[in-house]
């Protein structure tokens, strides 16, 4: 009797999640091929790695005989605002799905984000997978993930024998490296509004890799939230993030300041991310836990693992107060600058 497990291809295999997912799938007996634009060293002798560009590679030949594709390649980054990056990465995903269609792949796993639910004042806490997908307009990272989900769902609908696992993840961090999304959110949170303070969920990369293994083993079909139990209060989040001066401004001023900071290059956080620093987008993990998954790291442990100490952590209370005053002055100057630019622009028109 042949008990050999299916062949699995993992894209984004050199990333923190991809590396661990490849190792864990191999340990479970799967035949694993990792694909990435960057070269890497296999952490398991049973894992084969190939350096390929998904945008130009012969994907059909690479997927020949493969039953499962795990698509972890990152795509659009949190600081992207232009149309081209999202369009190009969705075109790559479309190529991958077309090749998977031709090669007879039966199960697909894609990495999405809890951000596809959007950050809205009326969001329940926590959100389940039945919640509507409605990313905040203009935030390319979330819009891209929602579009990727749509492509995957169209792919699975073409053949009743197929399944797709859509992993809607909390903010993911790795050891001593918070990741691009976490850094952008942290930068955006330096400007606080009077509308509210964010709660936080943080997922360790190793726990996301375990979620990949879980949905592959269960051939799970549908969306599944990936996050530790519970969440961090805004007070705890502020305490753990260190004594960084944060401004609290009226909502319309905060959005204007965020836009100006982005336009003049003071931050990599686009203004479109601001709602995610105000309104809740906390997710429930009951569905994944029913499949046998359990996070080994709490929100707090994951956050601390990826925390990058800041210079302000070493400042005295007096120094932090002076820094906050300087930051407030800069914010006011930015506001005046932005109003002047808007006024000049309207006159020129």
Task: Give the SSE map.
Elements (H helix, E strand, L loop, with lengths): L6 E5 L4 H12 L3 E6 L10 E5 L7 H4 L5 E4 L11 H21 L3 E5 L28 H18 L5 E7 L1 E3 L6 H9 L2 E3 L8 E3 H14 L3 E5 L7 H7 L6 E3 L1 H13 L22 H5 L8 H7 L11 H32 L1
Parallel strand pairs: 1-2, 1-4, 2-3, 4-5, 5-6, 6-10, 7-9, 8-11
How would you characterize the overall build of this protein?
The protein is α/β, with parallel strands linked by helices. 41% of the residues lie in helices and 14% in strands. The chain has eleven helices and eleven strands. It has helices at 16-27, 59-62, 83-103, 140-157, 180-188, 205-218, 234-240, 251-263, 286-290, 299-305, 317-348; strands at residues 7-11, 31-36, 47-51, 68-71, 107-111, 163-169, 171-173, 191-193, 202-204, 222-226, 247-249. The strands form three sheets. It has a seven-stranded parallel beta sheet, with helices on both faces. Strands 7-9 form a two-stranded parallel sheet. It has a two-stranded parallel ribbon with strand order 8-11. Strand 4, helix 3 (83-103) and strand 5 form a beta-alpha-beta unit. Helix 3 (83-103) runs parallel beside helix 4 (140-157). It is globular. The model is unreliable at 310-326 (pLDDT under 50).
Structural class: alpha/beta
Low-pLDDT segments, ≥5 res = 310-326
Shape: globular
Task: Give the terminus-to-terminus CA distance.
Answer: 77 Å
Can you give the mean pLDDT? 82
Q: How would you classify the quaternary structure?
A: single chain
Number of strands: 11
Sheet with most strands: strand arrangement? 3-2-1-4-5-6-10
- Written as H for each helix and E for each strand, in order along the chain, the element string is EHEEHEHEHEEHEEHEHEHHHH
The major beta sheet can be summarized as: 7 strands, parallel
Range of helix content: 40-55%
Beta-strand content estimate: 5-15%
Discrete helix count: 11
């Amino acid at each position: 009797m042949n008990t050999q497990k299916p062949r699995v291809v993992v894209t984004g295999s050199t990333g923190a999640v991809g590396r661990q997912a490849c190792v864990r799938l191999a340990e479970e007996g799967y035949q694993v091929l990792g694909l990435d634009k960057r070269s890497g060293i296999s952490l398991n002798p049973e894992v084969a790695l190939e350096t390929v560009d998904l945008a130009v590679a012969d994907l059909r030949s690479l997927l020949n005989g493969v039953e499962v594709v795990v698509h972890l390649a990152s795509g659009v980054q949190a600081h992207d605002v232009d149309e081209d990056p999202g369009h190009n990465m969705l075109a790559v995903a479309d190529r991958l799905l077309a090749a998977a269609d031709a090669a007879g792949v039966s199960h697909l796993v894609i990495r999405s984000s809890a951000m596809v639910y959007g950050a809205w004042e009326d969001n329940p806490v926590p959100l389940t997978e039945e919640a509507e997908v409605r990313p905040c307009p203009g935030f390319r990272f979330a819009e891209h993930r929602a579009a990727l989900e749509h492509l995957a769902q169209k792919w699975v609908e073409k053949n009743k024998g197929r399944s797709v696992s859509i992993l809607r993840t909390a903010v993911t961090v790795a050891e001593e490296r918070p990741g691009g999304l976490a850094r952008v959110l942290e930068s955006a949170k330096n400007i606080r509004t009077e509308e509210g303070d964010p709660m936080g969920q943080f997922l360790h990369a190793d726990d996301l890799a375990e979620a990949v293994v879980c949905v592959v083993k269960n051939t799970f079909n549908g969306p599944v939230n990936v996050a530790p139990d519970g969440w961090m209060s805004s007070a705890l989040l502020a305490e753990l993030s260190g004594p960084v001066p944060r401004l609290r401004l009226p909502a319309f001023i905060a959005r204007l300041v965020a836009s100006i900071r982005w336009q003049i290059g003071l931050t990599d956080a686009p203004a479109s991310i601001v709602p995610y620093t105000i309104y809740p987008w906390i997710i429930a993990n009951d569905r994944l836990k029913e499949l046998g998954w359990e996070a080994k790291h709490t929100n707090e442990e994951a956050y601390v693992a990826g925390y990058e100490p800041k210079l302000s952590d070493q400042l005295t209370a007096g120094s932090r107060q002076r820094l906050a005053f300087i930051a407030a002055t800069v914010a006011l100057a930015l506001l005046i600058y932005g109003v002047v630019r808007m006024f000049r622009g309207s006159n020129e028109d």
